[in-house]
Amino acid sequence: MVAVEEVVHPMCKETKNEDGKKPYDVFIESHEELVKAGEKWTKDTASCYIAVPLLFRGGNNQTGTPISLDQNIFKMFLLADSVSIITSTTSVLVFISILTSRCHAIDFLKVLPMKFITGLALLLFSVCSMMVAFYAALNMILKQNYSGSRGIVLGPI
């Protein structure tokens, strides 16, 4: 529609047809089914992406104090795990905002694509930081118990 608006004379945009409708109104009416299909696809896709960040989340000693509290690898684990939970929660909120929003034809131009890009970027960042947290946790476990096989396990990660 934006491409058509750029070519049409400005006066034609406000001209009404025989039924008293402006071109924008005719466009919305004729693409009503497309908007409904787009809204269904958008909400189905967003609901699938909500499940992924909610799947991820994990030691302490008997007193509740974290093991290896003073090690840098543990600090890396804490930071990565914190970033992961913040970005995954924010991603869920973005996808919930897509699910609860009313989809108008104009929303498919900028608003919904930006929400999807933001949600997917946050989800990707969450998964990457979760992998860093997993690496740090596995590194701490292997350092204490299996120092010889550490490189074999951590290398591919």
TrEMBL record:
Keyword Membrane applies: yes
Matching InterPro entries: PGG_dom
Domain PGG as annotated: residue spans: 60-138
Keywords, ordered alphabetically: Membrane, Transmembrane, Transmembrane helix
Domain of life, source organism: Eukaryota
TM regions (residue ranges): 77-99, 119-142
Protein name in UniProt: Ankyrin repeat protein
